[in-house]
Amino acid sequence: MIEIQGLHKWYGTFHALKNIDLSVDAGERIVICGPSGSGKSTLIRCINRLEDHQRGSIVVDGIELTRDVKNIERIRSEVGMVFQNFNLFPHLTVLENCTLAPVWVKKMQKDSAEEIARRYLERVHIPEQADKYPGQLSGGQQQRVAIARALCMEPKIMLFDEPTSALDPEMIKEVLDTMIALAETGMTMLVVTHEMGFANRVADRVIFMDGGEIIEQAPPDTFFNAPQNERTKLFLSQILAD
Amino acid sequence: MTVTTPHLPVYPPGGHPDLPPPLATIGVIGWLRSSLFSSLFSTALTLVTIWLLYLLVSAVAGWMVFDAVVSADSRTGCRAIDSGACWAVVLTRLDQFAYGFYPAAERWRPNLAFILLFLALAPVLFFGLPHRRRLLWISAAYPFVAGWLIYGGFGLKVVETGLYGGFMLTLIIGVTGISASLPLGILLALGRRSELFAIRLICTAFIEFARGVPLITLLFVASTMLNYFLPPGTAFDLLVRVLIMVTIFAAAYIAEAVRGGLQAIPRGQFEAAEALGLPWWATTRKIILPQALTISIPGIVNVFVGLYKDSTLVVIIGLLDPLGIARAVLADAKWNGLATETYLFVALFFFVSCFAMSRYSLWLERRLATGHDGTGSS
Question: A71 at the B interface (CB within 8 A)?
Fold first, then answer.
């Protein structure tokens, strides 16, 4: 589903991603973790080309990411993304947030777009908030709307960039539950997160990144119980301490 | 020492009901207490202010209303009747203040255009109207209909623009300038942030040039120099040239007000739109501009009010705006020396229009607020 080979990325002179090789199968759930600045967000943002890369290749569902705008738009309509800060459109209602892209990108009729939107809002358990504005919702509700908004494009892949990091503690669970339910539908998911409980329960593979490199990747069992690399061990001891 | 509050019952933990606030802190009484009589000093200040206001209002009202003369045939005629303002000077020349030298027999045409203006504005200004989409077509047709009505042709007698004047001229310049400069300014603001170097360069140069030159210079260019640059025989009407210059000038300011709004939009909004696969135009129209314009409302209205008042500068290149009419009226030996009344009248006209714009913009800001500015929960 995703094929990344020899990927390098620089911000100016800063070498942010170094020789990344990663392949993800359809239906696979991958959790990416690592200290801040390790390049994990940059990596998933390269997959829908919110960031461009300078060397190497990324092929998503058979389409190679290049400068070609048409290719980029095709890939973006197949790859959904959920952000740390939700990034809902504050001037639009929840329902309008969800129907905007289907109407403008897929040229869907407004009625059918709304029908799909209501179905996905149902799935993230907030159908009753459809006519409110994002500013009237709690953080957890907003993030669930953001997930529904991405799902309305019926993507094949979902990217999550630290989806629970901006939430109050009592709201993290409702978002994780939504993501777990999504994982159970067989969606291909790449999740950047520090929620190790989630990784343990859902992930097929956990990837540890540091300094722009993939240091170690393994199924959660092996990853948490028998990490190989010293840096992985140090990181796990730091985040599992509390 | 302990403070006891015997009249308040004791509730079990978690069982405390919501109580109403003490009466003296809310409503009219609360406002009076906190705003006007919060201390001895503020009470004194309030009383002194009321007394000063009384002196001011009674003096002004006496001059403007109670001792004023509304009908007389000259300044001396006014003075013979009463000592207050001599409104007769503006009332006898009201037609000129309204239309300039537009022929009396044709004045129904600007009158009709004026009435239609409100019909055309309504769907633009108020989005709650039913069938707004269809009504907007009427608004789009309005400039052509109004231009035809006022100028003539196609069956109507042509009235040369040199005869236009007074409030009619102000409205023509103001309405045309405002409605043309907003779209132009938005395009310039978007162009200035474009990723395409050539577009960015052109827009930036245009904005900086138009902002870096006084409006009066542009008007002089319009009145004298523009014809040198145009091929011979293409000289077009002075009023049209003025309208173009005013629009260019205002568009540059609008562009900067809108750019301020664009810069306030968080990066995440662009990223979310990109991640959904929205093309540039849909992102701009549906996500970025609605938010940026909402933020820019105070700045944009500021430019509009400025443009509207700056339209009086056309008096310098010989157009008879209300100030030009006022000057002509005061030059009449019969009304000599009544500058206060004449200019107050003109000022009142401008104040009413500008105040209306200001109130509308406040209403619009409230109408567009969706609770993302901290009024909702986090």
Answer: no
For chain B, the 3-state helix, strand and coil shares in percent, each to the nearest 5, are 70, 0, 25
Chain A residues with CB-CB distance to B274 below 8 A: 48, 50, 76
pLDDT score for B374: 36
Q: Is B2 helix (H, G, I), strand (E, B) or coil?
A: coil
Indicate the range of A177-186, B71-80, B249-258, B367-376 predicted with least confidence.
B367-376
Q: Which of B274, B370, B378 sits opposite A133 (nearest CB)?
A: B370
CA–CA gap between residue A57 and residue B37 (Å, rounded)? 73
Look up residue B335 and give its DSSP letter. G
CA pair distance A100, B273, nearest whole angstrom: 10
CB A65 within 8 A of CB A71: yes
Tell me the pLDDT tens digit for each residue of B163-220.
899 999 999 999 999 999 999 999 999 999 998 999 999 999 999 999 999 999 988 8
Between B277, B368, B373, which is nearest A76 by CB?
A: B277
A100 to chain B: which residues are within 8 Å by CB? 276, 278, 282, 286-287
pTM score of the predicted model: 0.84
| Cβ neighbours around A171 below 10 Å, total | 19
CB count within 10 Å of CB A206 equals 25
Question: How far does chain A reach from its first CA to its final CA, in angstroms?
Answer: 36
Alpha-carbon Rg for chain A, nearest whole angstrom, is 18
Which of B276, B294, B365 has the most A C-beta neighbours within 10 Å, making it the best mutation to test the interface with A?
A: B276
Distance from CA of A217 to the nearest CA of B (A): 27
Is A137's CB within 8 Å of B377's CB?
Answer: yes
Report CA-CA distances (Å) from B103 to A13, B96, B106, B324, B351.
73, 10, 6, 18, 27
ipTM score assigned to the predicted complex: 0.91
Burial label, A90 (beta-carbon count in 10 A; 0-12, 13-18, 19+):
buried
Is B377 in CB contact (< 8 Å) with chain A?
Answer: yes
Dihedral pair phi/psi, residue A124, rounded to 5°: -95, 15
Buried b / exposed e across A53-78, counting CB within 10 Å, b at 16+?
A: beebebebeeeebeeeeeebeebbbb
Task: Grade residue A114 by pLDDT with cuts at 50, 70 and 90.
Answer: very high
Task: Using CA atoms of A112, A113, A118, A124 in order, give the dihedral in degrees to the nearest 10.
Answer: 140
Distances (CA, A) of A20 to A214, A223, B73, B296: 7, 19, 93, 44
pLDDT band at A113 (very low <50, low <70, confident <90, very high): very high
CB of A81 less than 8 A from some CB of B: yes
pLDDT, tens digit, for every residue of A54-68? 999 999 988 888 888
CB contact under 8 A, B282 and A104: yes
Report the first-to-last Cα separation within chain B, whole angstroms.
42
Cβ atoms of B299 and B365 closer than 8 Å: no
Distance from CA of B375 to the nearest CA of A (A): 8
- A60 at the B interface (CB within 8 A)? no
